[in-house]
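Entry 14. Ran structure prediction on the chain below.
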Amino acid sequence: MMILDPALQDAEAEKWVKGFETELASAGGSVQTREIQGKKMLSYKVKGFREGTYVLLVFQSSSEGVRKMESKLRTSAQVLRYLLIKN
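Output, structure tokens:
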């Protein structure tokens, strides 16, 4: 689950998610479920924003791939918050 910058238009958010999926595939992972839930209000301000674009991705990857994806999420200016859950 990730929350993207609400200033991104729908097409830009879609492009960012596709780029993330491409990097995941190059790291040996695969996306199983992809759901862009759209803009929603946040309970409190995050990086000065009161809303964000919610994206849910269920993917499989090696631990190396997960570390790469987490690094990308952590350093990306478009990502306000993210949560990775190991299953």
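The domain at 2-63 is CATH 3.30.70.60 (Alpha-Beta Plaits). Will compare against last week's run tomorrow.
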